[in-house]
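REVIEWER CHECKLIST
Item 1: Sequence provided? yes
Item 2: Single chain? yes
Item 3: Sequence as submitted:
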Amino acid sequence: MKRRLHQFVQPFEEFFNSQVAGGLVLLGVTGLALLLANSPWSDLYFRLWELKLTVGIPPLALSKELSHWINDGLMAVFFFVVGLEIKREFLTGELAGMRKATLPIAAAVGGMLVPALLFMLIGPEGAEARGWAIPMATDIAFALGVIALLGERIPRSLAVFLTALAIVDDLGAVLVIALFYTSELSLPALAIGTVFLAALTLGNRLGVKSTNFYALIGLLLWIALLKSGIHATVAGVLVGMTVPIRPRFSHDRFVDEAGRLLASYRAHGTIPGPFLHEEKLGTLFALEHACHDALSPLQRLEHELHHWVIFGVMPVFALANAGIPLDPGELASAVSHPVTIGIALGLLLGKPLGITLFAFLAVRLGLAELPPGTRWAQIFGLGLLGGIGFTMSLFITNLAYTEHVELIAAAKVGIFAASLTAGILGFLLLRCLGSRRH
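Item 4: Structure as written out by the authors:
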């Protein structure tokens, strides 16, 4: 029984640990970006992201600044993995089934609505008001990093709940980006994108398992959405949603095939030295293909890309976007700016209030139950960790204030200050509650 339980918990443990390590890397890269932005090399740092890069051959070439390639292109890979995670969670994870999914969904909705309302209550005007969605996001890497520091002081069910909440939060952010941060639409490009999305959906229905098919059509969908006015990273989520969940080999077929190949491997003799003879080598390659076909394309891609996103895509994004000049005069002005205050209040106050209130309503109405071994004070502490916005908040900042550099600086100050404070307060509260529990 203990062995079976370990096999069940191990995939989540691996995910949790990689997110923790990713959070530490992200924190280090953020510090590096701030250091470079306020060093003698600051001009070089900022000019680097303005370099023009052209991909392709005219007239089909795409020419964009390096920062746009990162924010529109590289981050599409991040959103692709988000799409894979959302699909898996709703089919077999913590969001599978209405009763099971109600609590994290309700908490995530509250954690998005209340911060946005608090931001608008500050009374931003004109272009400033476009940042209402910035405090809606949760950075799962940093939040789970704080959870890791708490160790056994909190129940593991709370970390699982936070993960499910953050995934719903990501889905909400994607919908907000698609609906509210879209420039003028190009209907021809949108129509072409719809054709590519239909091709991906049809491929899924017909049982196409080749990841190359989804990569190629997905790239064409990304280009179409880039030209359409809808933010191109939405393509990442759409492609992720169409990746098949069923493997080529069923369980029984894999067991039979693996058994036959292992029997063949044992039957062949060995030769001196480190190398295998052709028959044995061919058997091993066949077994490798059988293992490959026993995994669903979705699960395989999520596993293969997860570390690339955590240790590659997100740090590069942070390096390109986290750097802000910390001039004392400008910093003092930013602290009192409505955008800074609205974002800070939304993340630091709106997140824990929204998450706790909506979760409480869901439980009181009999629609959901608290995770095993948790208390309402812990839900509030987890809501504070939900106030660590960072990655998605920075991403939405770039969309909201594309043409207003001064507003981007004010927003980043609010994001950094609130995220740091929320992380510290959430850690201290959950640590205190955990000590009492013991």
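Item 5: Key structural point noted by reviewer: The mean pLDDT is 84.
Item 6: Recommendation: ____
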